[in-house]
């Protein structure tokens, strides 16, 4: 784990330069300037955009404001997907900054979950962590932790505190010496070429004859329709807590 | 007819009318081959598994949440957790504003847009996915 510290830091501190523009049909009392922000790849839109919200609400009347939501080129952005995943899936081939449109009306019920408070984001995040640990350790590690440890994981993410986060997360990344890895690898594969939300299946890190599985083995097994490896690229999006999320994109 | 009522229950939210919940649905009286449009049907002899469209779900109540008369259901893989929540709420005659939480492994609450098929693949055992449901947050 210590060898990977540089990689972990690079992933954690990844940023996407973003330009937020208010939707043209929103009613404003004066012109709304765009708002620029560096978004953390590992976080969630509704967790890091308080300043964006305040900026635009300053030029709007209270009665014209309801729940904020974000859209990129007509696609509502799911706040419960990590920011880096959203960008890589939808906008990675476009020039920077990432241009996101901000809405305060007409919430798209069919496309987005509501996010009435930070508690909802925390609950979603912790559920992901628990689901990942169910796969890695049959939930033993996460269940043995105290409530304050869970809280520390969340606060680490919320406050962008790498050390605070990994002090707890490292325990979720350990496995007994006699094993060669987790029980199952927690992963999700997102593809731009399909309507399916993502691929998630059981996959052991070690084969029956003791060979360590590679990423290529995983892809061959769960995503056989993918074209030859040299024709696709993928990004491993942060083992946030260990839902290893990576997605494929076809060149 | 019970089947038709089950079908209308399972239309996507945008088109679903306020449907009647079947008064009595039980495995014993269910027909052998439910219509393919019914995304949720009582668990019967319909084969479930990898290549089949439906998976078996066993619903267990937590705390003082009302217990469903029919606990075992065959559900289409692409049905979401939100769809299942809506279905259980209608079946238990809960009002729309009442919350319902669903848990896997008595440990995590999957996202409302998660598909039951994926959960079955990863967390099913003995040919079924056990889900606990509760009107309050049971496992945080």
Automatic annotation (TrEMBL), chain A:
Entry superkingdom:
Eukaryota
UniProt-recorded name of the protein: Autophagy related 5
From TrEMBL, chain B:
Note the topology in the membrane.
Peripheral membrane protein
**What sections of the sequence does the record tag as coiled-coil?**
none
Check the record and name the InterPro entries matching this protein: Atg12, Ubiquitin-like_domsf
Gene Ontology CC annotations of this record: Atg12-Atg5-Atg16 complex; autophagosome membrane; phagophore assembly site membrane
Record-linked CDD domains: Ubl_ATG12 (cd01612)
From the Swiss-Prot or TrEMBL record, state where the protein is found. Cytoplasm; Preautophagosomal structure membrane
What are this entry's molecular-function GO terms? Atg8-family ligase activity
PANTHER family assigned: AUTOPHAGY PROTEIN 12, UBIQUITIN-LIKE PROTEIN ATG12
Similarity comment text for this entry: Belongs to the ATG12 family.
Q: What does this protein do?
A: Ubiquitin-like protein involved in autophagic vesicle formation.
Indicate what this protein is called per its UniProt record. Ubiquitin-like protein ATG12
What organism does the UniProt record list as the source?
A: Ovis aries
Which classification does the entry list for the species? Eukaryota, Metazoa, Chordata, Craniata, Vertebrata
């Amino acid at each position: 784990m210590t060898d990977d510290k540089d990689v972990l830091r690079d992933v954690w501190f990844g940023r996407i330069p973003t330009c937020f523009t208010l939707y043209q049909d929103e009613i404003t009392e004066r012109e709304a300037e765009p708002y620029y922000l560096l978004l953390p790849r590992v976080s969630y839109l509704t967790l890091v955009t308080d300043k964006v919200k305040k900026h635009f609400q300053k030029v709007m009347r209270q009665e014209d404001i309801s729940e904020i939501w974000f859209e990129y080129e007509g696609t509502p952005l799911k706040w419960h997907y990590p920011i880096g995943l959203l960008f890589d899936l939808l906008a990675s081939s476009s020039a920077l900054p990432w241009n996101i449109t901000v809405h305060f009306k007409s919430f798209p019920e069919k496309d987005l979950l509501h996010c009435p408070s930070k508690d909802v984001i925390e609950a979603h995040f912790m559920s992901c962590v628990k689901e990942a640990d169910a796969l890695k350790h049959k939930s033993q590690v996460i269940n043995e932790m105290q409530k304050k440890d869970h809280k520390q994981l969340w606060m680490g993410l919320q406050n962008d505190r790498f050390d605070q986060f990994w002090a707890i997360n490292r325990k979720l990344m350990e496995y007994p010496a006699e094993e060669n890895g987790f029980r199952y690898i927690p992963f999700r594969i997102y593809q731009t070429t399909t309507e399916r939300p993502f691929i998630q299946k059981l996959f052991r890190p070690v084969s029956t004859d003791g060979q360590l599985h590679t990423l290529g083995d995983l892809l061959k097994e769960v995503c056989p329709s993918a074209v030859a490896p040299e024709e696709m690229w993928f990004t491993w999006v942060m083992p946030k807590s260990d839902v290893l999320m990576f997605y494929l994109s076809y060149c | 007819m019970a089947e038709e009522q089950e079908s209308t229950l399972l239309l996507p939210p945008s088109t679903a009318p306020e449907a009647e919940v079947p008064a009595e649905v039980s495995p014993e009286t269910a027909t052998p081959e439910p219509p393919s449009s019914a995304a949720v049907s009582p668990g019967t002899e319909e084969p479930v598994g990898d290549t089949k469209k439906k998976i078996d779900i066993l619903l267990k109540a937590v705390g003082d949440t009302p217990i469903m008369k029919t606990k075992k259901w065959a559900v289409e893989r692409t049905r979401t957790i939100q769809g299942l929540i809506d279905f259980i709420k209608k079946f238990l005659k809960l009002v729309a504003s009442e919350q319902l939480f669903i848990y896997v492994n008595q440990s995590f609450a999957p996202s409302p847009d998660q598909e039951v098929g994926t959960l079955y693949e990863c967390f099913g055992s003995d040919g079924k996915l056990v889900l606990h449901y509760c009107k309050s947050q049971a496992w945080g």
